[in-house]
Amino acid sequence: MSYIGKEDEVQQRPYWRWSKVDFLPEESFQNWNTYLSALSQIYSRFNDRLLSRSDDANEITQLRKQSENDMKRCLTWWDLTWFGFGSVIGAGIFVLTGQEAHHHAGPAIVLSYVASGISAMLSVFCYTEFAVEIPVAGGSFAYLRIELGDFVAFITAGNILLESIVGGAAVARSWTSYFATLLDRQPDSLRIPKGNYLLDPIAVAVLAIAATIAMISTKKTSQLNWIATALNTLVILFVLIAGFAHANTSNLTPFLPHGAKGIFQAAAIVYFAYGGFDNIATMAEETKNPSRDIPLGLLGSMSIITVVYCLMALSLSMMQKYTEIDPKAAYSMAFQSVGMKWAKYLVALGALKGMTTVLLVGALGQARYTTHIARAHMIPPWFALVHPKTGTPINATLLMTISSGLIAFFSSLDVLASLLSVSTLFIFMMMAVALLVRRYYVREVTPGINQLKLVIFLLVIIASSMGTSAYWGLRPNGWVGYVVTIPLWFLGTMGISIFLPQQRTPKVWGVPLVPWLPSLSVAINIFLMGSLGTPAFIRFGICTVAMLVYYILVGVHATYDMAHQQQKLDALKVKNEDEDKEEKA
């Protein structure tokens, strides 16, 4: 694949091609000598990538040429709103609610959803402003590449891919459990025992079907999502009405069986239930009117979803004692416990529909993230190609589906969920930091002293938030540490508000109460990360080390070559223009 701007030649090449140049076109990978030479320059190249930042025009215009064909602009606010419902309501509410109510929060699971919902809405504000200003398929990856630089964007890209792969696998395995319930069998009965694993071929098949639909047409996927989500909405209404009709307030006692710590432990896990909304931001490139449609689709759907989640969690807790809730099929078993055995089939069917739409919308969003990451050459650019007939990134969809399928075949949801939450919270935290940088720093405009102040204030906000989270983990019943950490967070945020003028004003829609809301988003996301168990961070650390190894061996060289090749082309273009002017003169 060519990445040197010869669009006319590139357009004529067939979509299905497998040569080395399609996967490793950069100069550093032409042969072993060039690769060894690139490795010898790792220090200077890493410094170059660490400090380099993209810009709006490059992400919106230049990088899109790597896909050779454009995605079709076919989505409206109506599509995005239903995509919001379809991408979020599924595995989280039907699976994690019972799991976390049983193990950590008890009836206070409703407060866990309130806490994670507030954090999610703060992140939604940040995503909406960025998506309106930078309507590209890359979502948070593109936004962070512009504001925080190439290296930070790579770490984020790795976590995006991790979140997408693991999230798809988690939902697919949940689909199998509920399908078994629908057949009046035990949740694990359709899996194949093999040593320490329960193999799940059904989960793999479901992933493959969802991906196939997503590859055929974005608009048709949207239409199918409308139908499935509408049916799922009816089931949710039934769950709420029937659940509260069979409510027993005695089941809410004790309300806090594991104290406040249990609430936040559960909040950090059920945060996964809100994670799908970022898929909507990746569809900006296919939206007819991003400045109008994205705020309506994102903010509208997430506001309703937050209320629905809290009501569903409350209805479950009032129907059945938290100690008796089935962690694997909570709602179905809860209805059976109140004498509505038939209702468990309706709930299982609704859950299946919800999880199916999560997989459908996830297949769309994950592939678009992957496409833009490949456009930047952080993974092979072959995955950036958009099919000329379907207008969809088939190669990227195949990559994510095959990866998710391999994990879903072997892994269990409890291991996946905590790892996924760390990754999701990390990305959302970085998005809030990026928004503060976007508002208060503009290259070649912001004075150096103000840039230094911004860095200091951001470090104070992040460090104080980490201190609060650490103190909570070490002494959940203490208070002395908060006397130090919370005022420091307040002073850091106030410092930005008082001493730094905003350098950029959103053109259409912006986050209100800046810097307070983005700073609060940073604090809450870090706090929720600290509420997760040690094993989740060990897995997260292992994955991060693997990402860094890949970056040192491949990523830094590919992105370095691409950036400097583009600089040479720009310089050549300027030179040619100057020569033309001289000839005319």
From TrEMBL:
Report the GO terms under cellular component.
Answer: plasma membrane
Where it sits in the cell: the answer is: Membrane
The way this protein sits in the membrane is described as: Multi-pass membrane protein
- Keyword vocabulary terms for this entry: Amino-acid transport, Membrane, Transmembrane, Transmembrane helix, Transport
Transmembrane ranges, per UniProt, are 74-96, 108-130, 151-175, 195-217, 224-247, 259-277, 298-322, 342-365, 394-413, 419-442, 454-473, 479-501, 508-530, 536-560
Q: Which Gene3D superfamilies match?
A: Amino acid/polyamine transporter I
Statement: the UniProt record of this protein carries the keyword Acetylation: no
Highest taxon listed in the record's lineage:
Eukaryota
Pfam family for this entry, one: AA_permease_C
Q: Does the keyword Transport apply?
A: yes
Q: Where is the Cationic amino acid transporter C-terminal domain?
A: 509-558
Q: Which InterPro entries match?
A: AA/rel_permease1, CAT_C
MF (Gene Ontology): L-glutamate transmembrane transporter activity; L-lysine transmembrane transporter activity
Family as reported in the entry's similarity comment: Belongs to the amino acid-polyamine-organocation (APC) superfamily. Cationic amino acid transporter (CAT) (TC 2.A.3.3) family.
Tell me the protein's name: Cationic amino acid transporter C-terminal domain-containing protein
